[in-house]
Amino acid sequence: xxxxxxxxxxxxxxxxxxxxxxxxxxxxxxxxxxxxxxxxxxxxxxxxxxxxxxxxxxxxxxxxxxxxxxxxxxxxxxxxxxxxxxxxxxxxxxxxxxxxxxxxxxxxxxxxxxxxxxxxxxxxxxxxxxxxxxxxxxxxxxxxxxxxxxxxxxxxxxxxxxxxxxxxxxxxxxxxxxxxxxxxxxxxxxxxxxxxxxxxxxxxxxxxxxxxxxxxxxxxxxxxxxxxxxxxxxxxxxxxxxxxxxxxxxxxxxxxxxxxxxxxxxxxxxx
Length: 271
Hints:
By secondary structure, this protein is α/β, with parallel strands linked by helices. Helices cover 38% and strands 18% of the residues. Helix 1 links the parallel strand 1 and strand 2.
């Protein structure tokens, strides 16, 4: 007698996983929810070596010691094991979520799985109807009110193959950044977000965390389409690089995001 595979819910990132878990529990579903690493939109991905990625984040981005963490391999093995049937939750307008999804499809190697795709769907919140650009901004009550659980469908073999092929291409390119362009994840240079950081700096000294925060808000909310954001780990690394290049002025003992002050160089106009 064959043993029925365990249904598990899978997504990229701890915060979305926590919201999905709470939403499912409120609807009487006790299935496991697995959070996959959610940083694959930046750093080397060929080979897929967590140690190499940690070294890159540490040395190239000069990350805050708080963010100097090795990505676990166990969630990938757990989510793609032969004994489970995964249900993957994703919003493809978010670069980090799309990157995790493509890696997951690549690792599934043609095995069947289901998907709950929130891309371009309106969802219900206490503030009205909104379109999510990331599962990370959805609260458990938003997930329930929008009926996302009922949008589950099977991923067709051609769809899975296309996702795996897209990730294989991105692995070959092995760019420092990956961003969403016209709905697709594409490679980008390390300097991709530099103009935004320079534009968000003021003429007065202020904590680097404030400049990074404004840049994130601009990328996630103010641009069209919204949701063009990236991790503050990347932006902090670029603030330091821009300071070294003279495009920003930076001072402070370091090493963390709150240990530096930043300003626009004297004589440079705000964008």
